[in-house]
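Entry for the shared binder. Reason: the reviewer on the internal report wants the predicted structure included alongside the sequence.
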Amino acid sequence: ITKRWNGWMCGKLYGFGRIVQIVFFIGNMIGVFLIGPFSDYYGRKFAFMTTLTIWFIVSIIGYFVNNPYFWIVTRFIARGASLAYNTASAIYT
């Protein structure tokens, strides 16, 4: 984080790394919470492929983002989808 936005954030956002970690783990909790009902309703294979696709697309978008706040949003969505497809794949396979 400091290498990517050091000039922009230097002294402006104290504790930005901690905020990113908190949002990252909240994405974990929400992704695991939502994958159960989603996979029961639509099926395990569809849930696995959907969350894998969401994770892939959002991770690519997050790489090219120049705004740190939008980057936090992409990390939140990517982590939720990542843990969700891990959970769906364990049950699916």
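Summary line for the report: The chain has a mean pLDDT of 80.
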